[in-house]
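Sequence in, structure out.
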Amino acid sequence: MTDVAGFVLRVVDSPELVAIARTLMTEYAALPHTRGRWTTSAADIALLPAPYTPPSGVCLVAMLTDPPMSNDEAALGCGALIALGTPDDAEIKRVYVRPSARGEGVGESITRELMRYAELFGFARVRLDTAPELRTAIRLYERLGFRHIAPYKAGLLPDAVCMGSPVPLSVGPPIAARSAHRLP
């Protein structure tokens, strides 16, 4: 297992980080649970970092703090936030953690940071959908205070697990207690 005792979350805002985000999202798109759920993956990945750009969104990558390898190998995971078509609502998308880094808090850190950005951008609520077989992710979202909700947009598969949370998160340390991109 990769030692993820120290990692940082970085906003995808350079060609190098765009390339890393594309690699991670390509891995994510190849997972069995995305079949039928993300039918435009190739086109969406080619457009990165759009549409996940401020002030209506953000794309993050988690990277080892002191990688002894290439940046691509140091990449641990990614996630994105985008405005929904409804007032005050944003959506968390594409949260993915490489298998070697799972269970180490990377997914939770990505989700918390995306929620922090939702607050900074002025959103009141965040929605997400996930596949029912991703039970670990569902438990994480529940632990963070997300609640199960009715489908919130057209085009979701009938078995989509939809969840939502007010902004800011109702559990965990307040934003002031965390440093902006430096994670434990």
